[in-house]
Amino acid sequence: MPIEIRRFGVGHRRPDGPVGSVGLSGQVIHSDARGIVSELAFARGARIEPHANPNTTWFVVIEGGGWVGVGDERARVAAGEAVLWPADITHAAWTEHSEMRAFVVEFAGADDRVVLD
Prior knowledge:
Blueprint: E1 14-15, E2 22-32, E3 35-51, E4 56-70, E5 73-78, E6 82-85, E7 91-94, E8 100-107, H1 113-116
Antiparallel strand pairs: 1-2, 2-3, 3-7, 3-8, 4-5, 4-6, 4-7, 4-8
């Protein structure tokens, strides 16, 4: 089987994000029944509108920084930080005066730690 290589980043992104997203582009790197891995690029003043989905998701900031919201909480995030977006909880991300790049790793369904504990 040959090595599979997926290209992402500049030149491979398209406008992306949930309905209402502004200033956001991205590229799905992998998607199957187990989950999705995507790269997202936020311009200055970009945003993912608050929304929820049924999947547990990690938002992993790899460049720049901005803000995230989870439920009623808000926090500043920067490169080298990862934020958990729990299943069925409203979440959002945005930038103000800087740009931000992140990987989004979405697992199918809710977090099963409750079942395993």
